[in-house]
Each structure stands twice: as C-alpha cells, then as structure tokens.
C-alpha cells in the first residue's frame, strides 16, 4: 500500500460521498478495486476517440454493482486524455427523445455537466467556447489576418453536419460579443449551446438563428459538439448516460421505441465509424438491456447488434463488443477496498490507521453472517457502515473496535427499479380514446 498523502479536501469529499451512499466525483482512484480488464478496454476506447474513432458501450451490471462508479472512473481518465466529457442521469424528465421537452432537458443537463481537466466538476461549456475563440485569435495573429476569417474557416467544418449552420452562427455570435464587449450576446450564445432557449422566436430575436436545441435533435447536437470541441483544441468528446433503466420504465411503447431508435443511431454510427471523436457510455441494469418486452432487446435491430458473444460464458470474457458486463466484486476485492477506505480515512498515513487488519476480517465475517454475499457484491451499505464505524472510533478515542463491529447493522439492499411497473399503456387505444 502506498503512503502517498491524500489532501484533506479530497479525503473529506470521498468520505462524505461514500457515507451518503453516492459515488465520489473525484479521487475514485484512491478507493478503486478490481475491474482491471474492463478499465483497460475502456482506456483503449478513449484512445480510439482521440484518434478520430467513435465508440458506444453499454456498461451493464446488477443493481448496486458499481456502474456509476465505473462511469466516473472512465470519465476521470477521459479528462486526463484531454477529452471533454458530458454526463447525465436519465430520468422521467430526461430522455434521448421526447415531445414534451424531456429530451432537451437531458441535453441541458449534459451541457451543465460539461467538464474539462481544469474544470472537472462541470460548468465548462463557456470555457470551451472561449478557448475556441482565443485559439483562433492566436492563429489569426500569426497569419496576419482578421480573427473573423479564421473563425469562419474553422466553423465551415461544422456546416456539413445536420444543424451545423446555426451552430456555427451561434459561435460566430459569441465571437462578435467577445470582439465588441457585448456580454449579453456572449451569454445568449452560451445559453443557446446549453439548450436553454425554449422557443425559436426567442432564439431568433437574441441571435438571429432559426433553430434551437430541441427534443428531436439532441443526438445531432452532440455530434456537432464533438466536432466543435476538436476545433477548440480538445481530443474529443465522451458522453456518459447513466440510469438508462428509466427508458425501460417508460409506459408508452411508442416513447420507448423512439428512444431506442436514437440509441440505434448512436450505435450504428459507432459500428460504421461515421461520426468521429465521440464516445458514448450507457449505464444500465440487465433488465434494461435484455428484457424482450421493454428493454433494448425489445427492439429487433438493437437485439441483433447487442447480442453477446456466445463463446464468452463460464468465466470466459470478451470485452470487445458494445456490451460490457461488470462482473461482481469479489470478496478479495472487498477486503482491498476496506484497506483503501482505512487508508483514505487516515489521510494516507498508515500511522493514523484506526483499526488493525484483524478488524477488517471481523467486519467482513460479521457482514457475511448478516447478509451473505451481498455485502461485497453490492457494497454500498457495507461501505457506509464501515466508514460510520471509523468515524465513531475517531471521535471516541479509547473506544475498542471489537464491540462496535458486532453491533454493525447491515441489511441486503433491494432494487427499487424492480418494483412492479404500471400496466402497459396501449398506444393505439390511447389514440382512439382521443
Ligand atoms: N470498483 C470499485 N472500487 C471501489 N468501490 C466501488 C467499485 N465499484 C463500486 N464501488 C462502490 O460501491 C457502491 C455502489 O456502486 P455504484 O453506486 O457505482 O453502483 P451502481 O451499479 O451504479 O448502482 P445502482 O444500480 O443503484 O445505480 C458505491 O459506494 C461505490 O463507491
Ligand atoms: Mg448507479
């Protein structure tokens, strides 16, 4: 175990998240265990994105098995490789396709969570635009031409894509705002790029463009964004979409199909290598993928493309297909995880460890008796309880660990997503009723 010190702010952030049952946003590497092969294959994806390829991966794992953690890990690696990342959880009001604003809602959330290595916690979209402008200005100075010339030249690259003309106009408007000190124009341009205009009239008045980011063009917009981040000097774009089970939960078959169609477009583009410098990561549970009534498998074209390698069974793996199954953490992984939690809690200084190895074993034995294998396969509550234990020991010097371990209360977690769904709304009937 390394004794590299951990900064107090990072330590507190990690512990606070884990104690709240959520995945830490930064510093995951301090607690990460297992999943080496999965991480490796995703790192190769990131290189492919930087080299101009496009990728789509479905990170599939049981409830509480570590999907979100894994997505954050890959996101952190992407930032290190100079990619821009966008991430969002799907929700009833955040989908890939919709007619009532929910897809624009998803886009706006992705835009808010735009990150770069210098702004890893989101809010980086305006910095990306600013960087595009300053780079163009530098080039213009070197060539002895008007910056507008360089900007127009570069933006021409976007116009071949769907919606590219207006996207380019909006960035040009940002530049005019920059050039003339018109802050309003700059902020309107950024608002447009963030998908925050809700009507075309408004957008036209503010920026002179006819379109806005809307429910039907979210994927096109993301493709434009991936092209644009390249023009701003980044290596590409990684889009992380978590909680995909929300699509499976849509009651209308038609709404599900419309969303799955968008996923098919993304997957086809990646399999055919058409759109470059962009990667998609989808996090979802097995039923989201495999349920033949409501999951991705209910959509024929997706099922055939996502069917897993039939040779990869009985412990054999294939991490080259679009579906990446997260194997469960093992007991050994969990032991290493406890040592890491102890290490982080002690700010990286072994002299400050609050419990000996023996206590880790006792803790695991206790949890195993209580909830069986669940304690390491779905470790959210066990992690929480272990940190609670350390916290009590820290605040009550002289307290022995032995009696506390015996008193730890853990229960097996239940997957709320498996609660019965509302009965299927029959689209045809709904239409007749109108
Ligand atoms: N590889 C790992 N190394 C260390 N800790 C991990 C790892 N994977 C998951 N964890 C921890 O396990 C807990 C559950 O992980 P996570 O929240 O990512 O699961 P999930 O699959 O996204 O769950 P849900 O189905 O509820 O969305 C979290 O506390 C997380 O920090
Ligand atoms: Mg999750």
Task: Break the fold down into its secondary structure elements and pairings.
Blueprint: H1 8-19, H2 36-50, E1 54-60, H3 67-80, E2 84-89, H4 102-112, E3 114-115, H5 125-143, H6 147-156, H7 164-180, H8 183-193, H9 200-207, H10 218-231, E4 237-242, H11 245-248, H12 253-272, E5 278-284, H13 286-290, H14 300-306, E6 323-325, H15 331-345, H16 357-371, H17 374-377, H18 380-395, H19 401-407, H20 427-433
Parallel strand pairs: 1-5, 1-6, 2-4, 4-5
Antiparallel strand pairs: 2-3
Helix pairs in contact: 2-3, 5-6, 6-7, 7-8, 15-18, 16-19
The site of magnesium ion (MG) has 3 residues, from helix 3.
Protein name: ATP-binding protein
Short structural summary:
It is built from 20 helices and 6 strands. The protein has 434 residues and is an alpha/beta fold. Bound molecules: adenosine-5'-triphosphate and magnesium ion (MG).
Characterization of the model:
The longest helix is centred in the middle third of the chain and has 20 residues, at 253-272. It contains 20 helices and six strands. The protein has a domain at 1-34 and 329-408. By secondary structure, it is α/β, with parallel strands linked by helices. Helix 6 (147-156) runs antiparallel to helix 7 (164-180). A six-stranded mixed β-sheet has the order 3-2-4-5-1-6, with helices on both faces. It has helices spanning 8-19, 36-50, 67-80, 102-112, 125-143, 147-156, 164-180, 183-193, 200-207, 218-231, 245-248, 253-272, 286-290, 300-306, 331-345, 357-371, 374-377, 380-395, 401-407, 427-433; strands at residues 54-60, 84-89, 114-115, 237-242, 278-284, 323-325. Magnesium ion (MG) binds next to helix 3.
């Amino acid at each position: 175990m390394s004794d590299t010190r951990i900064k107090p702010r990072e330590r507190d952030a990690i512990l606070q998240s884990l104690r709240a049952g959520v995945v830490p946003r930064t510093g995951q590497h301090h607690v990460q265990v297992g999943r080496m092969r999965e991480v490796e294959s995703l790192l190769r994806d990131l290189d492919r994105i930087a080299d101009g390829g496009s990728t789509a991966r479905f990170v599939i794992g049981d409830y509480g098995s570590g999907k979100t953690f894994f997505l954050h890990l890959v996101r952190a690696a992407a930032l290190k490789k100079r990619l821009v990342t966008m991430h969002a959880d799907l929700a009833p009001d955040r989908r890939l396709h919709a007619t009532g604003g929910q897809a624009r809602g998803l886009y706006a959330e992705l835009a808010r969570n735009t990150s770069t290595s210098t702004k890893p916690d989101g809010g980086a979209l305006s910095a990306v635009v600013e960087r595009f402008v300053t780079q163009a200005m530098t080039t213009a100075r070197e060539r002895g031409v008007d910056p507008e010339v360089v900007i127009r030249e570069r933006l021409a690259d976007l116009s071949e894509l769907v919606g590219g003309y207006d996207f380019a106009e909006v960035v040009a408007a940002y530049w005019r705002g920059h050039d003339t000190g018109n802050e309003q124009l700059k902020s309107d341009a950024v608002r447009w790029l963030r998908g925050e205009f809700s009507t075309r009239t408004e957008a036209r008045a503010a920026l002179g463009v006819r379109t806005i980011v809307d429910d039907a063009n979210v994927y096109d917009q993301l493709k434009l964004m991936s092209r644009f981040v390249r023009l701003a000097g980044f290596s590409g774009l990684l889009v992380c979409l978590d909680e995909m089970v929300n699509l499976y939960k849509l009651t209308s078959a038609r709404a599900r199909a419309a969303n799955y169609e968008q996923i098919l477009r993304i997957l086809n583009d990646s399999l055919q290598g058409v759109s470059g410098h962009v990667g998609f990561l989808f996090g979802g549970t097995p039923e989201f993928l495999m349920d033949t009534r409501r999951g991705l498998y209910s959509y024929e074209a997706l099922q055939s493309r996502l069917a897993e390698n039939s040779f990869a069974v009985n412990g054999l793996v294939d991490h080259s297909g679009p579906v990446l199954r997260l194997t469960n953490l093992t007991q050994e992984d969990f032991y290493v995880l406890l040592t890491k939690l102890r290490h982080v809690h002690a700010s990286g200084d072994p002299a400050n460890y609050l419990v000996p190895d023996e206590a880790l074993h006792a803790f695991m034995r206790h949890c195993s008796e209580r909830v069986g294998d669940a304690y390491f396969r779905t470790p959210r509550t066990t992690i929480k309880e272990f940190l609670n234990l350390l916290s009590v020991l820290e605040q009550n010097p002289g307290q022995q660990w032995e009696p506390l371990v015996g008193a730890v209360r853990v229960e097996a977690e239940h997957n709320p997503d498996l609660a019965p769904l509302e009965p299927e709304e029959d689209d045809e009937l709904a239409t007749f009723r109108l």
